[in-house]
Structures are given as structure tokens and as C-alpha cells.
Amino acid sequence: MTAVVIVVAIVLVVVLAAGLGYNSLVRKRNRTGEAWSQIDVELKRRHDLVPNLVQTVRGYATHESGTFEAVTDARARAVTAGATADPNAVAAAENTLSSSLRSLFAVAENYPLLRAQEGFLALQEQLTATEDKLEYARRYYNTSARDYNTATQSFPRTLIASPFGFHPVVFLQAGETDKDVPVVDFTTATTPGAPPTHG
């Protein structure tokens, strides 16, 4: 009789531990999903700002059509990549959009009247704020992904993770162009048509 009680107690402990481990994995997976949705929200805000920014700069720099087309194409690719919810595709498309936006701001740097225009300054401030929020959201996502991946790959949760479909998620990594951030100085006046000044 004592042996039966011991076996039942062991089974209950194992079942309880498995249940707690499963619930912990669900919480971490949901937190990672929440972190991804925050990135999605900020990316949508960024995508919404880009057409207004392009139109504003286009009003001053009509002969820079190649730059405008590059930004518009990069935005379209970023929106398409966002619909896939594939972090690698989203990161690649967003890095391309960031690069094209740098080119757009470099063009804007050549037009002092544009730089002083209230609408342009407001768009620039909104984009800067959105980039800051995106940076925070990316860090939060990577922290959540790290915790989730650690949980799915650590013993004994790994015994539960694989059979119940808890697979590791990928981290968001900065693109090569993001590691070399140009400094665009809008405080110094330049002559229209002159090459942009980078600090």
C-alpha cells in the first residue's frame, strides 16, 4: 500500500511540474508575441509617415525622382514583408527602408527652405520619435525572445517544448547599414545643389 502511495505521489509531482512548465512556456510565448505586435504597431506608424515625408521633400526637390522612387519602393517592400510576420524578411525590408530614408534626408539637407518648413520639421520629429519607440520595441522583443528560447531549450522544459510545438524564435538584428549611422546636420546652411554634409 505504501508503494502505491509513493508512486501516485511521484506521478502527481511529475504532472504538476509538467503543467507548471507548460504554463510558463505559454506565458513566455505570449510575451514574445506581444513584443512582436508592438514592433508591428511602430512599423505601421513609420510606414504611414513615409508618404507624407516624400511628398513634402518632393515639393522642393523635384529633380530627385530616383530618391523618391527608392523610398516609395522600399516602403512598399516593407509593408509587404510586414504582412508575412517573418522577422528576417521584416528586418531586411526595414533596413532597406532606413537606408533609403537616409538618402531622402540627405537630399533634404540641400534645401534650407525645406529644412525650415514647419510641416517637414513636424514629420522629422514624428519619425525620430517613432524610430526611438521602434528601438525600444526591438530590444523588448529580443529580451522576450531570449527568455522564451532559454525556456524552450532548458531541461526539463525542453521535454515539454518540442512535443507541444514550442519552437525557438529568431532575434531581430541590426542591418549592416544600421551599424554605420550617418549624422545629418540640419543646423548648418548649405547651397542648393551642393553635396550633403555629413558630420
Description of the structure:
With 199 residues, the protein is an all-alpha fold. The chain is built from six helices and no strands. It has helices at 2-58, 65-84, 87-108, 112-116, 118-153, 158-161. The longest helix is centred in the N-terminal third of the chain and has 57 residues, at 2-58. The protein is rod-shaped. Residues 179-199 have low confidence and may be disordered.
Radius of gyration: 24 Å
Which stretches are low in confidence, meaning pLDDT under 50 for 5 or more residues running? 179-199
What's the overall geometry? rod-shaped
Query: What order do the helices and strands follow?
Result: HHHHHH
* DSSP summary, beta strand count: 0
Q: Biggest β-sheet: count, sense, barrel?
A: none
Beta-strand fraction estimate: under 5%
N-C termini distance = 82 Å
Helices, by number, come to 6
Helix/strand/pairing category: mainly alpha
Helix content: over 70%
- Kindly report the average pLDDT value: 83
Write a short abstract of this structure.
The chain has helices spanning 2-58, 65-84, 87-108, 112-116, 118-153, 158-161. It has 199 residues and is mainly α.
Features of this protein?
mainly alpha; 6 helices; disordered C terminus
Set out the fold topology.
Layout: H1 2-58, H2 65-84, H3 87-108, H4 112-116, H5 118-153, H6 158-161
Helix pairs in contact: 1-2, 1-3, 1-5, 2-3
